[in-house]
UniProtKB/TrEMBL annotation:
GO biological process entries: methylation
One Pfam family from the record: Methyltransf_12
InterPro entries, alphabetized: Methyltransf_12 (IPR013217), SAM-dependent_MTases_sf (IPR029063)
A molecular function (GO) term: methyltransferase activity
CDD domains: AdoMet_MTases
Keywords: Methyltransferase, Transferase
Name this protein carries in UniProt: SAM-dependent methyltransferase
Domain Methyltransferase type: 54-133
Source organism per UniProt: Trinickia soli
Length: 209
């Protein structure tokens, strides 16, 4: 793991130990806001056909709970791989989903295989002391990896630079949605959607192959 991400892994491991495998354990305020984020990301997914998916920054595997409920995923319909930089998160996810034969979890940042879809929720928000330039480079490198590994598309979210200035924190990264939309459109695909209308101080981008 590189020097940029090592303190982030520690940050999330500490959150998990403090709160457990609940939304606050991955630094979200509530189950409702977590589910709302998943709803945006999952607009990329098919509703009536099998798919494979890599969940980058899977935490304790909350997206898999969401998929099981909303998409009725099971062995015949889904091949799921969760990646996370925190070993403690991977252990928690594996325990939580030990009954799901179609799911596995690995520590890491790079997809070890291609999949229909890659998604990332929240991995670009906490930057701690990283500079804007270093964090922006990390985002773009990660998106390039997701594009290279996804055969049908990928989706991610970021905190928005349109957030209220008095509520913005120096340890969080607020991305410019217009710049990332333009980057994705010019670099990865003609089929790009920017979602910035779901009531949170963030946005979601869907990139379809």
């Amino acid at each position: 793991m590189n020097e940029l991400l090592a303190p982030i892994a520690t940050y999330y491991t500490d959150k998990l130990r403090q709160f457990g495998d609940v939304p606050r354990g991955v630094d979200w305020n509530s189950p409702e806001s977590q589910a709302l984020r998943f709803e945006q990301l999952c607009k990329l997914l098919p509703s009536n056909s099998p798919f494979s998916i890599v969940d980058v920054g899977c935490g304790y595997g909350a997206l898999l709970d969401f998929l099981a409920e909303r998409f009725d995923v099971r062995m015949s319909t889904c091949d799921y791989l969760g990646l996370d930089i925190s070993g403690a998160m991977i252990e928690a996810a594996a325990r939580r989903h030990a009954d799901k034969a179609y799911a596995r979890f690995e520590r890491g940042t790079q997809a070890p295989r291609s999949a229909d879809f890659l998604v990332a929720s929240g991995i670009f928000s906490v930057r701690l002391t990283s500079t804007d330039d270093a964090w922006d480079a990390y985002i773009r490198e990660t998106l390039a990896m997701m594009h290279a590994s996804a055969t049908k598309g990928f989706a991610f979210n970021c905190l928005t630079s349109y957030s209220d200035r008095d509520k913005m924190r120096p340890d969080l990264y607020y991305a410019n949605p217009c710049e990332l939309f333009d980057f994705c459109k010019r670099t990865f695909s003609r089929n790009v959607a920017l979602l910035h209308d779901y009531g949170l101080y963030e946005f979601t981008i869907l990139v379809r192959a």
